[in-house]
Design a protein that fits this description.
Elements (H helix, E strand, L loop, with lengths): L1 E9 L5 E10 L4 E5 L6 H8 L7 E6 L2 E2 L5 H8 L2 E4 L11 H6 L3 H4 L1 H5 L5 H13 L15 H13 L5 E5 L7 H18 L2 E5 L3 H7 L2 E6 L2 E6 L6 H8 L15 H6 L1
Parallel strand pairs: 3-8, 3-9, 6-7, 7-8
Antiparallel strand pairs: 1-2, 1-4, 4-5, 9-10
Bound molecules: adenosine-5'-triphosphate.
Length: 264
């Protein structure tokens, strides 16, 4: 469904962030992207929806090469790709509901969104999503009144209301405590399964990735050095991916209540 073909990004500074990446992600597959700082994980996620312009190569979403699209066609194609950010990227002074509905901006046109007149079907769907993530009672709260975990749930709803085929998720738990991180990863992966959605999750916490996804891709210096099941990530493999960096430091301490939570 998503195919990266010799995807390359060289920044103006000369930094070669991606070196001819080939990757296929089938429909409905959730994968984690791991690797040390500077490996090119964020660049890869952002080249897929062209928030960063690739230098060369192809990004094929259902056989349409996104790198060849003009701005109008790209805007339409971006509806198919929901994005979830580390810092949530909510509009703080707007309500939870308004933030979720902003995910429909690619569909409703400028004036309608400017006047915040969304179709009833969008509003109904926003309520359904908020209910699903346990935030229905917060719909009228301002975004700046929410905790980190709650903000990320709003970010997830905003991405899903786009009705995307693919989720691009950039460090979704980096600003959260370990327990909330696990809840958010569980929610993202459950929602992907429920909706048959593919996802690429850039995540620095290896243990968290291993807990929730069936496929892990390891990047190092802009190249894929691992692509396989989480169980194949032996200490040797991890040392190969992370090099001198201590990969054990990327594993967050698991709370004592982990077993209780897992049994729930
Ligand atoms: N806007 C930019 N201009 C120039 N170089 C950049 C830019 N963004 C990233 N880079 C460089 O590209 C390389 C890959 O960076 P990227 O942010 O994609 O890595 P990452 O794996 O996501 O790292 P981190 O986990 O620290 O976020 C690094 O060498 C970085 O310095």
């Amino acid at each position: 469904m998503l195919r990266l073909q010799k995807l390359t990004k060289t920044y103006k500074t000369g930094d070669q962030a991606l070196k001819a990446i080939d990757l296929e992600v089938p429909k409905g597959q959730v994968l984690a992207l791991i690797g040390p700082s500077g490996a090119g994980k964020s660049t890869m996620i952002r080249c897929i929806n062209r928030l960063v312009e690739p230098t060369s190569g192809g990004v094929l979403l259902d056989d349409v090469d996104l790198t060849r699209l003009g701005s109008g066609a790209l805007r339409k194609a971006r509806r198919e790709m929901g994005m979830i950010f580390q810092e949530y990227a909510l509009v703080e002074r707007l309500t939870v509901m308004e933030n979720v509905l902003s995910g429909r901006l690619g569909y409703v046109g400028f004036w309608r969104s400017f006047l915040r007149r969304y179709p009833q079907s969008d509003i109904d769907e926003a309520f359904r999503l908020l209910d699903r993530v346990g935030l229905l009672h917060m719909a009228d709260k301002r975004a700046d009144e929410l905790s980190g975990g709650q903000r990320q749930r709003v970010g997830i709803c905003r991405a899903l209301i786009q009705n995307p085929k693919l989720l691009l998720v950039d460090e979704p738990t980096a600003s959260l405590d370990p327990k909330t991180s696990r809840q958010i990863m569980r929610l993202i992966t459950e929602l992907c399964h429920e909706r048959g959605l593919a996802a690429i999750i850039n995540i620095h916490d290896v243990a968290l990735a291993q807990m929730f996804v069936p496929r892990v891709v390891g990047l190092r210096f802009g190249e894929i050095v691992y692509d396989g099941r989480p169980t194949g990530l032996t200490p040797d493999k991890l040392t190969e991916i992370y090099g001198e960096e201590d990969w054990e430091a990327t594993i967050e301490k698991v709370d004592d209540d982990e077993e209780v939570e897992a049994a729930e």
